[in-house]
Predict the 3D structure of the following.
Amino acid sequence: MFRSGRKVAFAITLLVLLFLANVWVSRFGANIPPIEGHMVLFKEDAWILVFLGIVATILALIPLFLEFSLSKTTAFIGWILYFPVLFNTLIPMFILFFSIIGVFYTPWLILADSPVANRLINGVIRLENENVHLILDYAGYALILLGLAIYLLSLHQLLKHTGRGGKLLTGGFYRIVRHPQYLGIFLWTLGFAITGWRLINYLMWLTLCYSYTILAIYEENGLEKVFGQEYAQYKSRTPIIIPYFKIKPAQKLISNSAAKILLATIIYVILLLAFYSFIDPHVIMYR
């Protein structure tokens, strides 16, 4: 059954990649755009930020590919949808297909023909108060650095703990939340969403967080089987991903994975609608 699950996960991953290749070819043909092309950059100095985001994304994807599973495939698809966010700090989508950067926007290309989606992708968030705009930019940079620090340090703690006889790791960042690496990913990806100044960035960030929440739920099923009562006690006193966000009555009522995923899905949809309703009035179209 384990091997069968890996095969299904690998097949889904391959189909997603083939689908994206087909989307590009059906729209632009088999030709790859030139490396250098006509681009109107939003932030000339954002290349370093984009490079940092790509490296961080690779580091986050490596654990997903070490062992294929259906839940990890969900997180991989979340990354596919989020990846164009990294380039939103540089260039608007509607002109980037003159250069090879356009290839990385392929996951959103299938949405571009819809007027609503076109506004999500190409509309730019503009605030009347420039001071607030500047504060949010710096907040985005701070979240990127904080999130990367939490991710790398908690990963180091996990790797350092791996050879200690299969004991449950409950110290360091794992004393604060049960999945500190995911917390780090949530923070630095939110930072990139903020610095890109697009509504779709936030929707794709929520989608990525939702996919990792599902992954965490499935991972904890395995951890409970391995560590038994010890993990149950750890789980009762430690929040899952977000610090200090723990609802004990809900934990007792929602004990099975299906109910947890249903609750996560409801929260995800509510947050999508809330973010859209709050941010859309501040979106401006430049074409």
Summary: The chain has a mean pLDDT of 84.
